[in-house]
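pinging the channel bc i need a second pair of eyes. not urgent but kinda urgent?? the chain im working w is below, pasted from the shared doc
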Amino acid sequence: MLLTVDVGNTNTVLGIFNDKEMVHSWRVKTDPRSTADELWLQYRALIEDYKVSGLAVCSTVPATLRELRTMIADYFSDVRVTIVEPGIKTGVPLLVDNPKEIGADRIVNTLAAHTLFGGPAIVVDFGTSTNLDVVSPKGEFLGGALAPGIEISVDALAARAAQLRKVELIRPKNVIGKNTVEALQSGTIYGFAGQVDGLVDRITAELMDSYSQKPTVIATGGLAPLIIGVSETIDRHEPDLTLIGLRLIHERNA
């Protein structure tokens, strides 16, 4: 079985694949201070019922990736390992000014989106930041847009405004909030949906200048369920997009 690990700034998502089928997935907190041995204890508790014969990893947290390399050397020395980094075959041309700047997760998402849905496509990844990644009909990464994530924005507002506080992130009954909690929920949920819709519309207009078809808009990331019900532009929801992309890259590097 293949263990896939997507290390994000806030959460780490792990998934077990039996061939092409996702068997189980987990979401745990990312702690850059965790040592290789601590990571192993955490992962072992999750995967102890599965016989892992392969491992695929991408990370946007350098400190955690360093410890992951140590953990792999100590505890996964007998399995085939793929770490998404320079030199790994992804099949994704990066048509940007500086390819070295592109996070591994964005490359992985591009491959998975094009494989599952074709192109052109826009991947909206709701995580620590909100990433919009643009995929050409040929599966090329064209660039995109980055914005502060939902939780970051809520935390910043609560920290900087004396009479405002963190609230449960759920869709309010009405856009016009009748109290502070509802007003904050409305501004967060509908505000971010409007931000995504506005960016998607502008990206689509630019894509239509080059291609004759509208892009498929795919939502992923831990906070996507908050927005997909109110967004007017999101077409598909694939919560395991990054893990699927890791499986595909692992297969390409067999």
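so The first strand starts at residue 2 and ends at 7. and DSSP finds seven helices and ten strands in the chain. — does that match what u expected or am i reading it wrong
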